[in-house]
């Protein structure tokens, strides 16, 4: 239960990790264009001062353009908070204590007691149609949660992706604690892949959502389309004041599949993005900027496109959730099966990213600040692409420095 430690993966899964690591190492030896090394493992990275700034490698070779000083940091797995979760995706800490977690495939929201690991199902979200990468995805608490007790959710229906809000009433019996959903925004395109799904309220009280391009690449560059965007709206689902394209919820465009949103201590927005075959990205988001997809994947010399602050080969990351803590962005990697740290200095990376927990818990879906130097981390071995073992999936409590 919650007393399990970093060694809680079963022997079979450990063996699989070893085999996968050996195969990956062999592939690196055979593939001339790829290089191992770099701080903490993964692809090498370097500091590049060009447009957008940040940590990046050469698009032609994967080698660093300049050497970045290695970052200093550590990650300690304090404990396993909960285990046995099925396809967990979104996580929202409750101010009164407890963690809400969404199940992509089951369409349910569950409360986890972070002290005992006990789980209580709030209820099932009606209308969720899980398939491929779609289903019940991100969740967030209302900025006025203390008074309205509203939980927001982003999910895939039979026809679209949409955002709803529901009243959470803990006094009702388990399974009946979610009120009827109030749809605040609909019509976000859906697909078998690239549904985006992360939602978060910003320091401005507005709701931000990562919307994927569903595999239809042209949506990303079409400013009138909702796919391939970061959206910004009021808590009622209206275009937020100050949005860059007039009466539109579109905040930034040229995205492939954004699944990570977080703000730093200076209230700047950061987003992680899945690449296709070459580069995954960490971007600092500016309203109205074009982030390049599908014209550009990763860094470009074209000033029309906002360059990523950091980029990784897709085998090393495939990033989903991100969080800000201890002066760094922390990024959960799915295919990369590791937690990345990107120390910040202004809008740039101060040093080369470091990776932690490499292969230790499998695929990592969501990371959320738990206050101070603590993080909550959600694994994703039961999403159909992992190798689930005893105890999967789980929520971990981390201490970072």
From TrEMBL:
PROSITE patterns: PROKAR_LIPOPROTEIN
All copies of domain Glucose/Sorbosone dehydrogenase, residue ranges: 85-385
Signal peptide: 1-32
Record key words, sorted: Signal
Superkingdom of the source species: Bacteria
Pfam families (alphabetical): GSDH (PF07995)
Compositional bias ranges of the Basic and acidic residues kind: 390-401
SUPFAM superfamilies per UniProt: Soluble quinoprotein glucose dehydrogenase
Keyword Signal assigned: yes
Annotated stretches, region: Disordered: 36-74, 381-401
Transmembrane segments: none
Name of this protein: PQQ-dependent sugar dehydrogenase
């Amino acid at each position: 239960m919650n007393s399990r430690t970093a060694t809680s993966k079963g022997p079979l899964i450990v063996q699989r990790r070893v085999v996968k690591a050996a195969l990956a190492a062999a592939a690196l030896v055979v593939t001339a264009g790829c290089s191992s090394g770099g701080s903490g493992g993964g692809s090498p990275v370097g500091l590049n001062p060009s447009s957008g700034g940040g940590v990046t490698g050469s698009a032609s070779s994967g080698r660093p353009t300049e050497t970045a000083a290695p970052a200093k940091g550590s990650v300690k797995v304090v404990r396993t908070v909960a285990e046995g979760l099925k396809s967990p995706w979104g996580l929202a800490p409750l101010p009164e204590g407890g963690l809400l977690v969404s199940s992509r495939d089951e369409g349910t929201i569950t409360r986890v007691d972070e002290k005992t690991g006990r789980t209580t199902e709030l209820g099932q979200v009606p209308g969720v149609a899980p398939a491929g990468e779609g289903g019940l995805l991100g969740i967030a608490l209302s900025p006025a949660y203390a008074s309205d007790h509203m939980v927001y959710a982003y999910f895939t229906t039979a026809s679209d992706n949409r955002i709803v809000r529901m009243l959470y009433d803990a006094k009702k019996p388990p399974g009946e604690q979610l009120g009827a959903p109030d749809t605040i925004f609909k019509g976000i395109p859906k697909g078998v892949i690239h549904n985006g799904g992360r939602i978060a309220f910003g320091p401005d009280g507005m709701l931000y959502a990562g919307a994927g391009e569903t595999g239809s690449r042209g949506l990303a560059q079409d400013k009138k389309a909702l796919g391939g965007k970061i959206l910004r709206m009021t808590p009622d689902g209206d275009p937020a004041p100050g949005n860059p394209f007039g009466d539109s919820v579109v905040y930034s465009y040229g995205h492939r599949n954004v699944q990570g949103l977080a703000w730093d201590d200076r209230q700047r927005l950061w987003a992680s993005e899945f690449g296709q075959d070459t580069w995954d990205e960490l971007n600092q988001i500016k309203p109205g900027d074009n982030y390049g997809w599908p014209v550009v994947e990763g860094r470009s010399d074209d000033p029309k496109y906002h360059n990523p602050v950091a980029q990784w080969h897709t085998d090393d990351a495939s990033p989903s959730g991100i969080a800000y803590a201890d002066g760094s962005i922390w990024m959960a990697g799915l295919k990369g099966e590791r937690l990345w740290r990107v120390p910040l200095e202004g809008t740039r990376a101060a040093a080369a990213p470091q990776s932690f927990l490499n292969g230790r818990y499998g695929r990592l879906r969501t990371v959320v600040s738990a206050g101070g130097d603590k993080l909550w981390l959600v694994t994703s071995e039961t999403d159909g692409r992992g190798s689930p073992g005893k105890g999967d999936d789980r929520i971990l409590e981390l201490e970072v420095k």
